[in-house]
Amino acid sequence: MAWVQILQHLERPVLQPVSLRPVTCPRAPRSPHPRRKKRREHQNAGCRPLLAIMDKFGGAASGPTALFRNTKAAGAAIGGVKNMLLEWCRAMTRKYEHVDIQNFSSSWSSGMAFCALIHKFFPDAFDYAELDPTKRRHNFTLAFSTAEKLADCAQLLDVDDMVRLAVPDSKCVYTYIQELYRSLVQKGLVKTKKK
């Protein structure tokens, strides 16, 4: 399962911390006049972080090769991880009634998909067959509180917001599912391939 390896990368930081030490701008002429010096320092303050980054990586053209050369490639990689996580959700909830996960927005609007995903890993926590898709508030509350209690998954979504919106925000749902997946991995309930 190659997609599991990609999901593991969600837990790792992508960027390395950069030390932003003060750097003087080389194009500004030195002036003995105090007023000009203050004005020049004020003007150069905005370019210091950029110059420090360029200094850190050896200049604009000679630094390390970027992970993605364009934003389309970056978007494709992120979209690939997103699609794999969506496919994982489908696989985990395939046999559950009232659940058909097609996206990270409308597919989660009744709360049944959240409940099914939690029930898959904690089947003794509640009786899924007793749930009603029309009782959205109850479904969201049950899913989020059970995930928080049993999986140590932070309750990133607010029940009131989920009930208020007819179609949940896809970025919010995606972020919550990422956190749930990470929590399940930490609990040892989702197996991932080791490198």
From TrEMBL:
Residues 30-41 have a biased composition (Basic residues). The keyword Ribonucleoprotein does not apply. Residues 79-185 form the Calponin-homology (CH) domain. Residues 23-44 are annotated as: Disordered. SUPFAM superfamilies: Calponin-homology domain, CH-domain. The keyword Ligase does not apply. InterPro entries: CH_dom (IPR001715), CH_dom_sf (IPR036872), F-actin_Monoox_Mical (IPR050540). Keywords: Coiled coil, Phosphoprotein. Belongs to the smoothelin family. This is Smoothelin-like 1.
